[in-house]
Design a protein that fits this description.
Largest sheet: none
InterPro entries: FlgN-like, FlgN-like_sf
Structural class: mainly alpha
Oligomer: single chain
CATH superfamily: FlgN-like
Radius of gyration: 29 Å
Number of domains: 1
Coiled coil: 39-93
Helix content: over 70%
CATH topology: Methane Monooxygenase Hydroxylase, Chain G, domain 1
Pfam family, one: FlgN
Number of strands: 0
Keywords: Bacterial flagellum biogenesis, Cell projection, Cilium, Coiled coil, Flagellum
Region (Disordered): 132-156
Distance between the termini: 98 Å
């Protein structure tokens, strides 16, 4: 019973991770288009996926501790001969999908960083930099070490 439950949970996790990967692919296209409303909605969908994945992970951990306390998924799969091949296959697929998600998220992070750099550059072109207006030594000239910044010479 618990081996089958573990397989079911792992299959659900794999399905959710594949769906999350599809969202990361969509995110890349949305970032390229610059559609902030769609990006907002997609981020909400990602958060819902992550909440569901976290819930399943908690269930998987509880079930794993029930079957073999403190054991890894590999050790549990070795002990459960009836579900061993299926569990190891799901684990391998899950690992592959997670690494694909990580790579796609890194790409999305780079695209967003480039977009922010472009926005800051465009902003600096549109909004001129104000010159500092103050009473002090001219720009580029340093004050001499013995000279006071005041207007009056206190030694006189």
């Amino acid at each position: 019973m618990s081996a089958e439950s573990l397989t079911v949970i792992m299959t659900k996790m794999l399905k959710l991770h594949k769906s999350l990967y599809e969202l990361t692919v969509k995110k890349t296209d949305i970032v390229k288009k610059g559609d902030t409303a769609a990006l907002d909605q997609l981020l909400k969908d990602e958060q819902a996926h992550m909440a569901a994945i976290n819930k399943l992970e908690q269930e998987r951990l509880a079930l794993s501790n029930q079957v073999m306390p403190g054991a890894s998924l590999q050790e549990i799969a070795e002990a459960l001969l009836s579900e061993k091949d299926e569990l190891l296959q799901i684990k391998e697929e899950l690992t592959t999908v997670i690494s694909e998600i990580k790579a796609r998220n890194e790409l999305n992070q780079q695209l967003i960083h480039q977009s922010l750099q472009f926005i800051n550059f465009s902003k600096s072109l549109v909004i001129p930099q104000e010159k500092e207006i103050n009473y002090g030594p001219p720009a580029g000239k340093k004050q001499k070490p013995g000279q006071s910044p005041g207007m009056f010479n206190s030694k006189a």
